[in-house]
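Quick start: read one record
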Amino acid sequence: MTRRKIVPVTEGGTGLVTSGALGNILTSDGTNWTSAAPASQLPQGFTGSLTRRSFYIQPAVGMASLSSVITLGAGTVGLVVTPFGGVSPIGQIQQGYSVINLTTPAAADDRVYLYQGPSDVNKPIRRDLLPTIGYLVVPSTTANVRVAFGLADDNNPSDLLTSSTPGSTNSAETVAFMYDTAASNTTWRCITSNTTTQTNTNSLVTFTAGTAYRLYIDMLTAGSVKFYIDGSLVATHTTNIPAATTHLGVFEGINSLTASAATIYIGRVAGESN
């Protein structure tokens, strides 16, 4: 007779009776283990294609000091390295890795951002090369902030954080998700601009503190920019978009609009281009 013993979690075991379906992984929420299909650690649209160039920013110790990533503004860039567990939104995007936190000073109109600029002309991110880019992010507050995630030219990328209307008030060519309480936003906005004019679409997806969002920009169709949030198409822009050959850089940032610090967490940044 074969005896089978299930080792409980309290004694260092998993407490599971079976191994689960083929390909499942074990995930702990800090108290119990579950067997489930692995969640993607990459934003939507990252396929790992062998025929397209890929760029992938995985938060890691020292990442903010990489020469290709410029840390600008008056705030700080830190790393959340303590596991949050699988229950919290940050834990959901963390999945065993560190998470970048961008934190502004406790001063009005101070901002901090990461910008991976289009410095390499041989490997540009341009609309005519049909790029895609995705982010996993968690806001920490909805009050008195302006945040932006997307692509911007290198004339002055921080314009995304100094104005709620980039492109109509400055020379920036941009494609970005934004949220701005100065513009009375309560939802994520989808922004494109061509240096003089902006298209600003309401995604109808509420911007909520402590919620994990998968933001995805798709320029796979010539002359079109599509915005997705958590897998759903929320906007398509065909006018007031960057010129096809403008070199764009990857941008993530936050601006505090009042005298208090504000933070946003970044789990992954990934994209592809021809």
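The longest strand covers residues 263-273.
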